[in-house]
Structure formats: C-alpha cells, structure tokens
Amino acid sequence: MATKRSVGALKEPDLKGKKVFVRVDLNVPLDDNFNITDDTRIRAAVPTIKYLMGHGAKVILSSHLMKLIQLLKRGLQGRPKGVTPKYSLKPLVPRLSELLGVEVKMVNDCIGDEVEKMVAALPDGSVLLLENVRFYKEEEKNDPEFAKKLASLADLYVNDAFGTAHRAHASTEGVAKYLKPSVAGFLMQKELDYLVGAVSNPKRPFAAIVGGSKVSSKISVIESLLEKVDILLLGGGMIFTFYKAQGHSVGSSLVEEDKLDLATSLLEKAKFKGVSLMLPSDVVIADKFAADANSKTVPASGIPDGWMGLDIGPDSIKAFGEALDTTKTVIWNGPMGVFEFDKFAAGTEAVAKKLADLSGKGVTTIIGGGDSVAAVEKVGLAEKMSHISTGGGASLELLEGKPLPGVLALNDA
Ligand SMILES: Nc1ncnc2c1ncn2[C@@H]1O[C@H](COP(=O)(O)OP(=O)(O)O)[C@@H](O)[C@H]1O
Ligand SMILES: O=C(OP(=O)(O)O)[C@H](O)COP(=O)(O)O
Which annotated residues bind ATP (predicted)? Predict the structure, then answer.
C-alpha cells in the first residue's frame, strides 16, 4: 500500500512546543511477575519518540497491552474490560525511560481532567505515557466521541503502531480524523517499506507459517493467503479448529466453534488452488495449561478427552522442515505451541532454527508478531532472519493486499 509522509518530514518549526499524540504498540509479553520478557516493540518505538523529543515536541504516548492474559488464559483473546491493574502499562515505564534516557512520566488514565493537567504541564522535549487505551471499550469500537477526546490532548498525530495498524480503533484510526497533520512514524514507514516490497513480488516457492492463539482473526486471513502462497503450514492454536471440522476429537484444545465451516472450506480451497496446506500430523498434548503439566505425543487426529494440544510433534517438525527446504521466501506469524512453557517449546524452536538456517542459504525469512518475535529472540536467532516485524496480524493483512486502516487514515495536510 502507498505510504504517506512520515514524521521525518516534520522539522523543528513544526514540532517545537507542539503536543504530539503518538500511537505506539507497546503490547509486549510480560511474565507472571510483570517482567518484560521481550522488549522488541519498546526498542522499535524509540527512534520516533527520540526524534520528536529532540525537536522540542511534547510527546504523548498511547498504547494497549494485553499479552499477559494470553499466557495465563490459554490464548483466549484477552481484551481488558474496564480498568484492570494486570494490564496497566506501568511495568513498561522503567524500560522505556532507560531506552529514551529520560524519566518518562505516566498518568493513570488516557482521557479526562488529570490527563489534561499533566499534558498542560509537559515541558518541551518530554514524554508522557497514557494508561492502556483499551481500558475504554470505546477504543475498539472506534467511537468518534472517544477519538475526539484523545485528539483534544494534542496538536498533531503520529501513528507508529505498525503491530496494531490492521485495527480500526479510536487511537489508531479515529483520532487521525481530528488532528492535522497525522503522519506515520519511522517504524511504521520502515515496516511498510520492507514488507510491501518483500511480499508484492516474492521469490517462489513462497510459504506462510501461521500459528499462535488469535485464531478468529488469523483464520480469516488464510483465505486470501491461499491466493498468494505456494505452501501454507499451520500450527499453534489454529489447527484444532481444522481437526474438529474434519470430525476428529480435539479434547479441550483451543477451538473456534463458529469457524468450523470456514476451516472445511479452506481445506477445499487449498486443494482447488493447488496450494500445499499442511497440518501437523502429531501434537504434544497436556493434561492442564501449565508449565508442569503431564505431556505426551499423540497423532493430531486423536486427542483424548481432558487433554489439550499445546505443541506440534516431532513428525510434524520433520515434515514442516522438509517443506520449508523447498522455499525461497517464508513469512511466519504465530508460535507453533505454547513456547513460554519449556515442555511445549520444541516446535516453535525447531521452526525458528530452520528459518535461521534457510536465511543463511539466501531464503528471505520474515518473522512477524509480538510472541513469534519473542520466541525467536528467546533462542537468539532474531539477527539471522531477513526481517523481524513488530506486527503479526498486521503483516499478514498487508500480505493479503488489504489497506491497513491505521495507515489509510493518515493525512498529508
Ligand atoms: N496450541 C496452542 N494452544 C493455546 N495457545 C497457543 C497454542 N500454540 C501457541 N499458543 C500461544 O499463542 C500465543 C501467541 O499467539 P499470537 O498472538 O497469535 O502470536 P503473535 O503475537 O506472534 O502474533 C503464545 O502466547 C502461545 O503460547
Ligand atoms: O500483538 C499484536 O498483534 P500480533 O499478535 O499479531 O503481533 C498487536 O499488539 C495487536 O494486538 P491485537 O491483536 O490485540 O489488536
């Protein structure tokens, strides 16, 4: 998609003393003690913030955060409902301050009197972090009144949240209507520049690997992916909907009941299109969602009651590896299993190692998504990949050829 003017076009006279609303994606994984387990997204947000600070702007940062519940609640899409301390952005302040080299101030809300007071008191070149914007249900509804309230805090808008650019939310899309100019940040620009080029005319065979837990949003992307790729490997929480649709028992694995018909039609479409769609033939199952669960490997088509699939098995790792050996471009979003628990990390780690190997042989390897990147960082292989993207769903939707609402909304004025 066409990219618009980026923040780099704004100079000192445009920025000095101006209040800039910057949407960033600081949705990083946290452990049970609120320690950041992968800070890629925070580091990626730094260049734009530093640029704005350096030009004397008053930087107002906005983000959502929801990774912790994904781990705790087995991949159910955990949207914060109301103010929930668990999803506060507070644990991010020390790392953000360290990376920016200034003390980042934080306010306990994202709209309202207290926020307005803090914004009014901001010195030039300083940074204020707003509380989790998804504490308001109006955010995901893209409520215009809420967007106006966010916009009223600032003079101009920068969207640097590539990872959330596929969501038409108030802070990613709505707010751009009320602030001029509204421009892309450096990260947004960099991601678009790389990904648009890499996926518009990929070297073939072209493979996508899709896993993770956001089944409902990602399964819908698969239909379009079948138009683009030669090979599609599915893993993670994605696969059980396909198995259930085929009449297999899936125990208590993650399933999207309302996507069963879609799964069946996708399998048929893949056949019709001549795309090699591979599901794992074996899975590692657990008797509970916990690091110390009992586990065993079983054929993917027969998961006993009371057990849940949390990783792909060794036969699948081998088959996926052989399929990937034939490729020239690979895009991967979504871990193959619950890699946060050592017992269920083998599939994800094997795919990461395979892609690192292939990168060394000239294959273009693109890894996208907060948790997928965290998994690749965990095994120390991020440097080996062609591109590490801060967006998983966003990079898949870009690959689909869909305009991203967070980019479309930006204006050049
Ligand atoms: N079989 C599975 N069942 C439940 N959760 C899973 C399964 N496989 C992977 N996951 C979880 O998926 C999460 C990542 O999903 P997702 O957000 O879709 O990926 P990304 O952040 O890379 O886009 C991880 O926290 C991982 O534990
Ligand atoms: O983690 C994110 O996406 P990803 O899991 O596709 O990488 C982004 O922060 C978007 O989050 P959302 O999928 O809750 O809108």
Answer: 218, 340, 369-372
Please name the residue that has the structure tokens 């590539």.
Answer: 162
Angle, helix 40-54 to helix 370-378, in steps of 10 degrees: 110
Q: DSSP letters along 4-43, please?
A: --BGGG--HHHHTT-EEEEE------B-TT--BS--HHHH
In a domain, 341, yes or no: yes
Residues comprising the binding site? 25-27, 41, 64-79, 134, 167, 218, 340, 369-372
The SS3 call for residue 55 is coil
What pLDDT digit, counting tens, does each position of 298-331 carry?
A: 999 889 999 999 999 999 999 999 999 999 999 9
Query: What residue ranges line ligand 2, CB within 6 angstroms?
Result: 25, 27, 66, 163-164, 167, 214, 369-370, 391-393
What pTM was estimated for this model as a whole?
0.94
Residue span of the structural domain in which 141 resides = 7-186
Binding-site residue set for substrate: 25-27, 64-79
- The number of folded domains in the chain is 2
